[in-house]
Amino acid sequence: MIWNEKMECMEADQMNQIQSARLKETVSYIYKSCPLYKKKLDAQGVAPGDIRGIEDISRLPFTSKDDLRDSYPFGLFSQPPKEIAEIHVSSGTTGNPTVVGYTKDDIRLWSEVMARAFACAGAMPKDMIQIAYGYGLFTGGLGAHYGALEMGLTIIPASSGQTKRQLKIMHDFKPRILACTPSYCLYMAEEAREMGLDPKKSSWEIGVFGAEPWSEPMRKEIEATWNILATDIYGLSEIIGPGVAQECTFKKGLHIFWDVFYPEVINQRTLKHAKDGETGELVITTLTKRGIPLLRYRTRDIVSISYERCRCGRSTPRISKIQGRTDDMIIVRGINVFPSQIEHVLLGIEGTKPHYQLVVDRKAGKLDELEVLVEVEQKIFSDEIKQLRMLEEKIAREIESVLGIFVKVKLVEPKTIERSEGKAKRVVDKRAG
Ligand code: DLL
Q1: pLDDT of residue 12
Q2: Among 68, 114, 325, 336, residue to substitute to test ligand 1 (most atoms within 8 Å of Cβ)
C-alpha cells in the first residue's frame, strides 16, 4: 500500500464515527486484558460502557512515562510476552528504560503508518531509500524499514554511523530518499566535502528527518546544503515509534494519522484542552493497537494543532513542529537523555556532589557533544592530577554505560556551578537549532 486515501482525506464527522467505535473497542479491550489499566479505570470510576464515543475521551485517565517505568517491563502490556512479536526499548528518566511490545498486527499497523509517512513526504513505490536511523532497540531504523517494505521501496538498511560508507553508498547506488536524524544529515555534509563529494550534487531528493527537535533555520540549512526537500517526521516508542505524524511536501505542520493515534492538546497546568492553535502538551490515545495500547498518553512534547484541511488534500489535523518539552529531557545524537539519569550515576560515586550541569553543543558540521560538569569535594583537587583524570574517566564510563553515548566529564571545584533559587539549571543547550 502507498497511502490510505480513505482515512487520510475523510470528512471529520465521518472520521469521528470511526474513532468513536475504535475508542469504545479499545477501552473494553484494555479493561479486560490489562489489570493495571482496569485498576486505573476503576479508580477513575469509569466502566467501559460509560464511553459512548470520542467525545467522552476526557473521562479517561491519563497515562505517563512513569506508569510504564513503574510497571517495568511488561505491566502495561495487554498481551502476554508469548503473543508479542517484537520488543523495543527507549531510555526512561532513571533506572528502568521504557519497554514497548508489538503484536504481529501492531507491526502491520506500524508498516502502514510509516508507508503513509513516506508517501506524505513525496516518496513513490520503487524509489530507493537509504535508512540511516539506528537499527536495534531504537524504533527509528526498523520502523522506517517496515514502512519502506510495505510501500515497495528499494531499501538500503544502512543504519546509523560509518559515515564514509554511507556516503559512498549514496554516491554509487543513487538513492532518492534519505531517512535519518537532521543533525546526522548535516554532519554527513562535512564528511562528504572531506571525501571530495559536493553535497549539492547528491542523489537524495527527499529527506525524512526526525527523532530530535530541529528548527526552521536548520531545515533551510539542510535544504541548501544538500539540495533536498527536508520533511519532518514525528513519533515516539510508546505510541509506535516513527510514523505518528509526518509533513507533506507543503511543510505546513505534521499530519497526524488520527484514525489510529487520536491527538489532544492540553494545557499542562489545568489538564484541560487547549484552544485550537494554542500550544500545549500533546496527548495521544492509540485506537487500534493490541500489544500495548495506551489511553491518553502524555507525550511531554509541546505543540499546537490545526484542524484545517491541508492544500495536499489530507483532512488529518496537523501538529506544529515540536516546540519543546514539559520535562527536562534532551536529545543528544538521537538518544534521549534525562539529567536524572546522570544524577543517579553521580550519587553512586564517592567524592562527587549532586551539583552538576550538562552542556550540549554542536559545532558547525559536527555531531552533538555532551559535557558533564561535576562538582567534587575540595580534597580531590589536592590529589595528584592523575587521580583526577581517573575519576573523570570512571564517571564518563559509568554514564556511557547508562546512556550508550560518549560524554566528556569535567570535574570542577565546589560551588562553581551556578546555584538557582528555583529549578536547578541542569542543562545548558548551546545548539543553534
Ligand atoms: O525518536 C521515534 C522516531 C524515530 C521518530 C525516527 C522519528 C524518527 P523515542 O526514542 O521514543 O522515539 O523518542 C521520542 O523524541 O517524545 C520527542 O520528544 C522526540 N522527537 C521525535 N521526533 C521528533 C521530531 C523516536 N520530529 C521523543 N521533532 C519524542 C522533535 C522529536 N522531537
Answers
A1: 96
A2: 336
Tell whether the model's pLDDT for residue 159 goes beyond 90. Answer: yes
Q: Which positions ≥6 away from 384 have C-beta within 8 Å?
A: none
Which residue has a Cα nearest atom 27 of ligand 1? 236
CATH fold group of domain 1-327 = Rossmann fold (3.40.50)
Please name the residue ranges forming H helices in 2-133: 5-9, 12-33, 35-44, 65-70, 104-121
Q: Is 209 in the pocket of ligand 1 (CB under 6 A)?
A: no
- Residue 421: exposed, middle, or buried by beta-carbon count in 10 A (0-12, 13-18, 19+)? exposed
Ligand 1 atom with minimal separation from the 299 CA: 16
The rounded mean pLDDT for the chain is 94
Please indicate whether residue 211, judged by its CB atom, sits closer than 6 Å to ligand 1. yes
Binding site membership of 111 for ligand 1 (Cβ less than 6 Å): no
Coil, helix or strand for 88?
strand
Rounded distance, CA 29 to CA 48, Å?
A: 9
CA of 379 to the centre of ligand 1 (A): 42
Q: Where are the domains of the chain?
A: 1-327, 330-429
Cα 308 to middle of ligand 1, angstroms: 24
Q: Which fold does the domain 330-429 belong to in CATH? A: GMP Synthetase; Chain A, domain 3 (3.30.300)
In this structure, what C-alpha cell is assigned to residue 194?
A: 572531506
d(CA 399, CA 368): 16
Q: What Å distances lie between residue 107 and 81, 143, 293, 326, 395, CA to CA?
A: 15, 9, 13, 29, 39
CA-nearest residue for atom 21, ligand 1, is 211
Q: 233 CA to middle of ligand 1, Å?
A: 8
Nearest CA to ligand 1 atom 1: 211
Q: pLDDT tens, 165-219? A: 999 999 999 999 999 999 899 889 989 999 999 999 999 999 999 999 898 988 9
Q: What are phi and psi of 136, to 5 degrees?
A: 130, -145
Cell of 47: 466502566
Q: What is the dihedral of CA 31, 36, 37, 42, to 10 degrees?
A: 80
